[in-house]
Write a structure and sequence with these properties.
mainly beta; 59% strand; 8-stranded antiparallel β-barrel; two-stranded antiparallel ribbon; 239 residues; 0% helix
Length: 239
C-alpha cells in the first residue's frame, strides 16, 4: 500500500454576521440548543451523535502531465454526500468530533478535443476539533481525514461524443487510502467546508494491458484535489 505524506494546509474562512436566539422558558427552541452533559439524554461524558451531509460539492484540481499544466474545469456533485458524527463537547465553546462519511469527488480535464471526467466514491473517517458558541450553533472546525477509495469511474469524450466509459470497485488506479485536511464554519445547521488532498489522486504505478502491450496511463500525471462543500448538519434529538 502506497503511503501518502500529510502536509500542512491552508486555513481559510470568512467571518459572517450572526443573530442570537432569544430563548424563553415557554417557547420552543429552534436549531441546536446546547445542554451540559449532565442534562442530556446522552451518556454523562457528553458524547452525542449528529447526522448531516457535505451536500453539494464544488471540486477543483491542480493537474499536471509530464510537468505541463492540464486545463480542468469545476465539477459539481450532489449525490451521494452523506455522513454522521460522534461529538464530545468539553464545554459550550470547545469540542472534539469523529465519524464516518461517504462522498463523491473528482475532476474534469480538457486536452485539445479530449475531455475526461473522473469520479471517485470514498468512505472517510474524519477527526477534528470545533470551537465557537455551541449554544448559538455557531462555530468553526478543522481536522484531518482518511478516505477509503471504493468506486472509480472514468468517461472520455472526443468533440463532445462519449467514446469510453468504465468504473471499477476498489480500483488500483487510485491509492487505496487518501488523506485530506479540512476547515469549515457551521451556522444554524448549515455549514461551509474547504477540503484539500495533498497526495496524488492517481496511483502512478498502475499498469494495464491494452492491445497486448503493457501501459502505465497515470505514470506522469499528478493531480491534487480540493473542494468547497455547502451542506447541513443536525443534532440527533433527545428522546
Amino acid at each position: 500500500m502506497r503511503k501518502c505524506s500529510v502536509s500542512l494546509l491552508l486555513m481559510c474562512l470568512c467571518v459572517m454576521a450572526h443573530a442570537q436566539h432569544q430563548d424563553t422558558a415557554e417557547s420552543s427552541h429552534q436549531g441546536f440548543h446546547y445542554k451540559p452533559p449532565a442534562e442530556r439524554h446522552h451518556p454523562v461524558q457528553g458524547v452525542y451523535a449528529a447526522g448531516g451531509s457535505d451536500g453539494s460539492i464544488l471540486s477543483f484540481a491542480h493537474v499536471k502531465n509530464h510537468g505541463d499544466r492540464i486545463t480542468n474545469s469545476m465539477r459539481f456533485s450532489l449525490f451521494f454526500n452523506i455522513g454522521c458524527t460522534a461529538n464530545y463537547d468539553f464545554s459550550n465553546h470547545a469540542g472534539f468530533f469523529s465519524g464516518v462519511n461517504l462522498k463523491n469527488i473528482g475532476f474534469i480535464t480538457r486536452e485539445d478535443d479530449l475531455k475526461i471526467k473522473r469520479r471517485l466514491y470514498s468512505l472517510g473517517i474524519p477527526a477534528g476539533f470545533k470551537f465557537g458558541n455551541f449554544n448559538d450553533d455557531f462555530f468553526f472546525y478543522l481536522g484531518g481525514q482518511y478516505e477509503w477509495a471504493l468506486n472509480y469511474k472514468e468517461k472520455h469524450f472526443v468533440q463532445g461524443k462519449k467514446v469510453l466509459k468504465f468504473n471499477e470497485w476498489f480500483s488500483d488506479r487510485t491509492p487505496l487510502l487518501l488523506p485530506s485536511l479540512f476547515a469549515g464554519i457551521k451556522m444554524h445547521n448549515f455549514n461551509v467546508k474547504v477540503q484539500y488532498y495533498p497526495g496524488n489522486f492517481f496511483n502512478t504505478g498502475f499498469h494495464e494491458i491494452k492491445g497486448g502491450l503493457e501501459t502505465m496511463p497515470y505514470k506522469d500525471i499528478g493531480a491534487h484535489i480540493f473542494f468547497v462543500s455547502f451542506g447541513y448538519s443536525f443534532k440527533i434529538k433527545d428522546g
